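Write out the 3D structure for:
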Amino acid sequence: MKIYAPTGAVGGWSTSPAPSIPVLAGRRIGVLDNGKPNARLLLERAASQLAARTGASVALVVGKSVAISDDACVNAATPAGEATIERLVKEVDLVLTGSAD
């Protein structure tokens, strides 16, 4: 009997994080709803409070808008569609998304 270990080599990051925005005043905040229960409400409130404190504005709130087959399930693990990502890139400077369990 052979037993295979499910471990493997750990690779490095293929991308690097975006640079931080030093000042948010006048910047546009976007919200990408990740599909978890109450995530949109949580993220919208966080974005509103961040905007009020920094002089930024909440410019866009969107869901994932995933182009998938009718029988597929959209959930927190499903990536956002390309059109949604492109819209966020064009219309906002900062995106809030995700929530922990």
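The chain has a mean pLDDT of 86.
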